[in-house]
C-alpha cells in the first residue's frame, strides 16, 4: 500500500520522505545563508510561501482539470493526489511567485542562486537517501 496508517490517518511514504528532505533543506540553508540575516529571513519567507502555493495549486487544480469531481464528492476530490498536470500547475504558481519576489526584493544573483542550488541539490539527495534507506531497511 506504500502508506503508514495511524488510526484514521493514512500517510503516504512519499509525503514522509518529502517532509524529511524539507527538514534537511531547512538545516542546510540556515547554515549557507547565515552570513546575511536579512536575506535569510526574506528567502525563507518567500520559499515557504512558494511551497504553500505549490501545495494549494497542486491539490486545488485537480478540480480544474477534472471538474466532474465537483458533482460527485468535493471533499473526496481534495483528498486525491494530482498528476503531472497538477504538479506542473503548482510548480508554475510557486515558481512565478518566487521569481516575482526575487525581482521585487532585488536579491543579489550570487546569494539567491547559491541558496536555490543548495536547496535543490539537498532536497533531491535527501529524498533519494531517505527513500533508499527506508526500502533497504523495510
TrEMBL record:
Keywords attached to this entry: Membrane, Transmembrane, Transmembrane helix
Top-level taxon:
Bacteria
TM regions (residue ranges): 6-29, 50-67, 87-103, 115-137
Q: What is this protein called?
A: Prolipoprotein diacylglyceryl transferase
Amino acid at each position: 500500500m506504500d502508506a503508514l496508517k495511524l488510526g484514521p490517518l493514512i500517510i503516504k511514504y512519499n509525503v514522509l520522505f518529502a517532509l524529511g528532505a524539507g527538514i534537511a533543506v531547512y538545516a542546510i540553508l540556515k547554515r549557507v545563508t547565515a552570513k546575511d540575516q536579512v536575506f535569510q529571513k526574506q528567502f525563507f519567507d518567500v520559499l515557504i510561501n512558494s511551497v504553500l502555493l505549490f501545495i494549494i495549486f497542486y491539490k486545488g487544480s485537480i478540480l480544474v482539470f477534472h471538474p466532474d469531481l465537483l458533482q460527485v464528492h468535493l471533499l473526496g476530490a481534495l483528498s486525491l493526489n494530482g498528476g503531472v498536470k497538477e504538479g506542473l500547475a503548482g510548480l508554475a504558481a510557486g515558481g512565478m511567485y518566487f521569481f516575482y519576489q526575487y525581482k521585487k526584493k532585488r536579491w543579489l544573483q550570487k546569494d539567491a542562486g547559491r541558496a536555490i542550488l543548495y536547496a535543490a541539490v539537498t532536497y533531491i539527495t535527501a529524498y533519494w537517501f531517505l527513500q533508499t534507506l527506508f526500502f533497504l531497511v523495510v
